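Annex B.
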Amino acid sequence: MRALQIAATGMSAQQMRVEVISNNLANMSTTGYNARRAEFADLMYQQATRPGTITANDGTIVPAGVQIGLGVRPTAVSINLAQGSLTQTSGDLDMAIDGYGFFEVTLPSGASAYTRDGGFKRSADGQIVTSDGYPLVPGITLPSDATTISINAAGEVYAYFNNQVQPQLLGQITLAGFTNEKGLEAIGSNLFLETEASGAPTVVVPGTSGLGVIKQGYLEESSVDAVREITELIKAQRGYEMNAKVITAVDEMLQATTQVR
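Flagellar basal-body rod protein FlgG: predicted structure tokens.
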């Protein structure tokens, strides 16, 4: 019976949905994490009688026809780009993007990656790097004798020194924007890669071209809504159970058929 295969696709879809929800809940405390959502579409239909065909009996047009669906398939795991709330940390290298945009960093391979995790650190040679040691682009080196580091909303980095009234400009932090941010490829460690779907990045000064501004001393929390995720988990669990019941029902029908003498 087709119902066995159809219900099996339904169970697989709900299992994938639970896996996505599980990943969201696991990253509730991940800085700059955006929740994901599994999306599905129905499979092809078997056309027993096509709508609009002419019947052989009296020549009338069939208004609806007989179309039997063959199940469901996953189409995407899309990212919800809603900004998480900003939490004050008072760290001089903690930066949150208030609005759209990504920080650009350089991977060991030399490729560029993009992140909204602004929990930056200072490397041994004074560079601004991520927690994994990937340098921020453009590269900015912090003097070891600087007493205070200040970063304004436009991304300008200043260093204050003893016996100097005026700060020294060290560099300019830029942000990258994409035409289709949902087309970025997630590679873990809060990093994304450019793809054909995302388009090439537009790198500008914060606060321009529709991108956000930088908030020093803040970090962006995860955008995961725990209540929503638990609700979706319950719905996915019930959907899985109902598809399992269909398989049980079909099995009982087949059992009854084999017992007919």
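Residues 16 and 38 are 7 Å apart (CA to CA). Residues 86-220 form one domain. Further annotation is deferred to the next reporting cycle.
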